UniProtKB/TrEMBL annotation:
<dbReference type="GO" id="GO:0045296">
    <property type="term" value="F:cadherin binding"/>
</dbReference>
<comment type="function">
    <text>Cadherins are calcium-dependent cell adhesion proteins. They preferentially interact with themselves in a homophilic manner in connecting cells; cadherins may thus contribute to the sorting of heterogeneous cell types.</text>
</comment>
<dbReference type="InterPro" id="IPR020894">
    <property type="entry name" value="Cadherin_CS"/>
</dbReference>
<dbReference type="InterPro" id="IPR002126">
    <property type="entry name" value="Cadherin-like_dom"/>
</dbReference>
<keyword id="KW-0325">Glycoprotein</keyword>
<dbReference type="GO" id="GO:0008013">
    <property type="term" value="F:beta-catenin binding"/>
</dbReference>
<feature type="domain" description="Cadherin">
    <location>
        <begin position="163"/>
        <end position="271"/>
    </location>
</feature>
<dbReference type="GO" id="GO:0034332">
    <property type="term" value="P:adherens junction organization"/>
</dbReference>
<dbReference type="Pfam" id="PF00028">
    <property type="entry name" value="Cadherin"/>
</dbReference>
<feature type="signal peptide">
    <location>
        <begin position="1"/>
        <end position="24"/>
    </location>
</feature>
<dbReference type="GO" id="GO:0016477">
    <property type="term" value="P:cell migration"/>
</dbReference>
<keyword id="KW-0479">Metal-binding</keyword>
<keyword id="KW-0106">Calcium</keyword>
<keyword id="KW-0472">Membrane</keyword>
<feature type="domain" description="Cadherin">
    <location>
        <begin position="82"/>
        <end position="162"/>
    </location>
</feature>
<keyword id="KW-1133">Transmembrane helix</keyword>
<keyword id="KW-0732">Signal</keyword>
Amino acid sequence: MDRRKAYVLMVLWAVAHLSSPGSGLRALRRTTGGRRGSTGLTGQDANGVPLRRSKRGWMWNQFFLLEEYTGTDMQYVGKLHSDGDRGDGSVRYVLTGEGAGSLFKIDEKSGDIHATKRLDREEKAYYILHAKAINRFTNEALEGQSEFIIKIHDINDNEPRFTKDVYTARVPEMSDIGTSVIQVTATDADDATYGNSARVVYSILEGQPYFSVDPETGLIKTALPGMDREVKENYQVVIQAKDMAGQMGGLSGTTTVSITLSDVNDNPPRFTKTLYEFRVPESVELGGTVGVIRAMDADIGENAEMDYRIIGSDGPGMFDITTNRSTQDGVIVLRKPLDFERKRQYSLRVQVENAHINPRFFSVGPFRDEATVKIVVEDVDEPPVFERASYVMEVKEDAARNTIIGSVSASDPDDKNSLVRYTIDRRTDMDRVFNIHAGNGSVYTLRELDREENAWHNISVLATEFNNPRQISRVPVYIRVLDVNDNAPTFATNYETFVCENAKANQRIQTVSATDPDEPLGGHRFFFGLAQEAAGKANFSVRDNKGNTLSARARGHRINFNLLKSVYHVPVVISDGEFPMQSSTSTLTVRVCTCDREGNMKLCNAEALTARAGLSTGALVAILLCVIILLMIVVLFAALRRQRKKEPLIISKEDVRDNVVSYNDEGGGEEDTQAFDIGTLRNPEAIEESKQRRDIVPETFYPPVRRPVLPPTRDNNGDVRDFINQRLVDNDSDPTAPPYDSLATYAYEGNGSVAESLSSLESVTTEGDQDYNYLSEWGPRFKKLADMYGGDDSDRDS
């Protein structure tokens, strides 16, 4: 069927192009007459002059080739022919350019061009090639190279495709007819310049009657008024795009458009009930929730936001309502305390209204609603209630025990009106100064009071129901202790003064004042006078200054007080003006001192000087202790600085010397630093004969001893043996040697030693070659060493 369709299309194409002037096949014909390049008559011009034209070897136009060829044979494109081709096979046609040899082949002899593959115009719309005719034998070009084009003729083989598989769009609900929603676009890969293969027309397959689509632009619009989101929110619209201008036989493609109606505020809030009833205990705290009411709104989002308010109440200010923004509920809260005994029921009128109103929908109706809320208060067993928030009582400090000073009163606010029992919170009356009558609430004293000790007492009284002891209330009671005149006045301080021995008569010596712990209502008024026993014989007098002070004066004429005594004690009687009158006797101390003519003190006893300077004995002792502590700190600081200056024996761990000093011998001790000269061992030829030792008597007292020369012996260790034997003889015969046994280490191997090394690292390999029998010849000092190394080989092996 496809092949038959292709043949029909080729025939139609051939008929259309062959019938048109300048078609491809006719263009390839060789012009007749004359040789190439000659001229021929073609007519005359306006002046009658014959016109001539030059003959061309090639006449070209475009080749056309149908795309998507489905035949089994190669598709014929056209034929090339040269004027020089006489049909004897001497002309060879050559084709070059795009697709030459791969997509397009030419018959070298006949010039026929065929397409070898199925071509797609959407991949490449045309191909540019070059044709050339050459002599087969001489390879000379018979014609110049010419260019021609093979255009791929389009067929409707591509359906329209939308730019998206699925489109999503939103449009407000209740939109007017013709409101634009979204525009869809489809493209067709066919040639838009040829026929209607790429002309797309849009239509709606699903979605009527709610939406329509513009057939030319693909714009989707609303087609039905009053679409309500609350009725239906989502719509699936299927749009078709068809080429060939929508005609029969055109190819088509579809896409789905998901359209959602967005919400608008077109629905008012509505209460679910006209009457709400809540029951709440009277013990609810202020700010507590009484109840929650809810109005329903079919809208969503901000269009469903509501505001609640109370528009009427029989208990003004008792309640308030707020909006829970997350749930859009109305929350009724308590603003004033509830009391079941006073009011047992409340009625509220509540209104709800949208927070965001769209003026477009005012005609729908008022966007508010109203409801009634009934609140029933439930009785709760409450604790007793005192008549007052606090009590203040007064009692005189001289009140006797068990004196009633006041009373408190509390009652049960509940209907049952239970009896109340009173107690005192002993945590507020630790000394148990007061008590209360359990039945009538009378407060009385248990102990005598002293205002000067505690002028106020703050206690707490507890009221408890007899039937329910857990119901307790508390009230503070402030008890003020009133003053009575029960304290005698005294001097404000211990007065001590001095007087010159030649003081003038009636000279004022000291002005003193008195104090009284009592606090009379009219203030203090003190009276002063000399005690009766000193009134007639005293050398001093007192004068009441009428201002709660007195002045002490010298009595009579000039008197040499120093001739009598140096210290006088003047008794003064002080009394108050209250009832009953209280009095006491205080002493004024007067010291007599030597003064100059101007009255300046010159000489006085130590006590007077101390008093004059204003320093008491305690102050002097404190000053002395401070001085001693400072001295001790200075001495301690100096001792620490002195200790720091001493050089330590070992400054650091890195300064430790590898010295081993032995003190449990009779030798030279620490000063015997030359007893062992290791340098001599390392170089025996450089022995200092004249070097003296500090631990022995100089050699001048002892004649030098000639060292006997031992005959040399020949063995493997002769050099070392000779050296050690010689040193042994020297030490045995030296009278100046230290009188103790010493161990000397000789690190000298000798010149040309066969042993080569005394190190124990190679002893394993050289032990079998060593002969230690000579150690037994060195005397008793080397006996132990000879026993260890001087045995036979068989003994060591065993």
